[in-house]
Amino acid sequence: MTTAPLTSPVDGVTIGPARVADGADLWRIARGSGELDLNSPYSYLLWCRDFADTTAVARDASGRPVGFVTGYLRPDAPGTLFVWQVAVEGSHRGTGVAGTLLDALSDRVAAEHGLHRIEATVTPGNLASDRLFRSYARRHRADLTQEVLFPAAAFPTAGHESEVLYRIGPLGSPEA
Fold it and tell me: Which of 57, 80, 82, 175 has the highest Cβ tally under 10 A?
């Protein structure tokens, strides 16, 4: 299914599905975020190929990716979109691009697959992601619960914070 690009609150930025050619830019944006666990460049190429229907990319007026949200439908929880990563290039942060990306992706997933809940993990120090998911829950009139999914001790390297599971749902209609 081809989805027409959506316009974001930022002039000249549109939101649309991922393309394999976006993989290198998604890796670049993730690397520059300063918050995300960086995956290999190869994984972003695969993500854009195998999970394009659950990924959204923000593009500037020239078509260059400036932000993205990646996710997947949980195999054991139909109707649940797990948001893997959200990142926006520094020049577009704080402008509403991340919220627009998340809304566009959830709208597309709801139309194509059905959607009842969103899940994501956030480290306790990531205030921008905390605000993003709380704002999303308010706009969609949904409850948000939190619990530690993976404690810091579960990670093989020292220094990784716990990953707190944010569960948003059931999803309702977004506010007008």
Answer: 57
Determine contact, residues 122/133, Cβ cutoff 8 Å: yes
11-15: long-range contacts, CB 8 A cutoff, minimum separation 24: 11/61, 12/60, 12/61, 13/58, 13/59, 13/60, 13/61, 13/66, 13/67, 13/92, 13/97, 14/58, 14/59, 15/56, 15/57, 15/58, 15/59, 15/100, 15/101, 15/104
Burial tier of 1 (Cβ tally within 10 Å: 0-12, 13-18, 19+): exposed
pLDDT band at residue 1, thresholds of 50, 70 and 90?
A: very low
pLDDT digits (tens, 9 = 90+) for 53-74: 999 999 999 999 999 999 999 9
